[in-house]
Amino acid sequence: MELGIRGRRAVITGASGGIGRAIAGALAAEGVDVALIARSSDLLAQAATKITDETGVRAIAIPADLRDIEAIQSAAKTAQEQLGQIDILVNSAGAIPASSLESLSDEALHSAWSLKLSGYVRMSRALLPEMRTRGWGRIVNIIGLGGKNPSAGHMYGSAANAALMNFTGALALEVATEGVLVNAINPGMIKSERILEMAQKWADDAGMPLEELMDKQTAALPMHRMGTLEEVADVATFLCSERCTYVHGAIIPVAGAMGVTL
Ligand SMILES: NC(=O)c1ccc[n+]([C@@H]2O[C@H](COP(=O)([O-])OP(=O)(O)OC[C@H]3O[C@@H](n4cnc5c(N)ncnc54)[C@H](OP(=O)(O)O)[C@@H]3O)[C@@H](O)[C@H]2O)c1
Predict the structure, then answer these.
(1) Strands across the sheet with 9-13, in order?
(2) Which residues line ligand 1 (CB under 6 A)?
(3) Residue 175 Cα, ligand 1 centroid: separation in angstroms?
(4) Which domains, and CATH codes, for the chain?
(5) Angle between helix 119-134 and 69-83 (nearest 10)
(6) Each residue's pLDDT tens digit in the chain (262 positions)?
């Protein structure tokens, strides 16, 4: 399928690893110039070089801590200055630890929500005005299935995800006649560094070796396997594309029927 986005320009947050990195690679493979944002400057620089070598697009690394509003505004400006007007935003930078009511300090909670909740909202506010002016844009928020399923062990992540699902729908309504499509993906269990870190915490809490916990968790999944980064990236790339025209305000699970609801 020709996706029609060759020459477009995208900002991807959380692009030093995991889902964000995979989406940056998938968009670049479609001919999209990409700005990769996260904190780890070495990983970002390596990823940008590899993407350019493999696809020939312009790929730039913008190190930034997205818990900070000034860092967000500055990163957005750098992307616009170096790539040109930004057509596509993928928000994927998130790192809310597995947590119950008392297990996160107030400072850690503020930090977690500053990144995953405020970070997505602020980056949208920084880049959407230009998309609206030109009448074309795509925003994809990588959220998390937990937003639909309250979980005592992932309380603050699930709460942020529920808020982001609502924000995604509301923003889609606000721009519905302006040529900008806003959608979200809810990953289920996707094999990334982050899921392995969370699994380690659950294994420690349960006093169980990590491998045993992973085997148990995988066996409990409807498809008896976790998803891959590429499986999320493929759906995201379609949502960012010219072929996506009437999917708007959607929250799409990429979760292998995990938590399936009508
Ligand atoms: N994997 C799953 O199964 C799953 C399930 C549900 C939801 N999700 C969501 O999907 C998104 C991506 O998750 P992932 O699995 O790809 O996680 P990951 O592999 O840990 O990647 C997270 C990305 O966020 C960046 N990041 C973390 N703190 C940051 C900060 N303060 N400022 C800027 N960037 C920061 C990390 O880079 P640096 O450390 O270099 O900053 C990294 O690039 C997250 O929002 C997560 O909640 C994932």
Answers:
(1) 59-63, 33-38, 9-13, 88-91, 137-142, 180-187, 251-254
(2) 14-20, 38-40, 43, 65-67, 92-95, 115-116, 142, 144, 187, 189-190, 192-195
(3) 27
(4) 9-190+227-253 (3.40.50.720)
(5) 30
(6) 899 999 999 999 999 999 999 999 999 999 999 999 999 999 999 999 999 999 999 999 999 999 999 999 999 999 999 999 999 999 999 999 888 999 999 999 999 999 999 999 999 999 999 999 999 999 999 999 999 989 998 999 999 999 999 999 999 999 999 999 999 999 999 999 888 888 898 899 999 999 999 999 999 999 999 999 999 999 999 999 999 999 999 999 999 999 998 8
Q: Tokens in use for 55? A: 């696809």
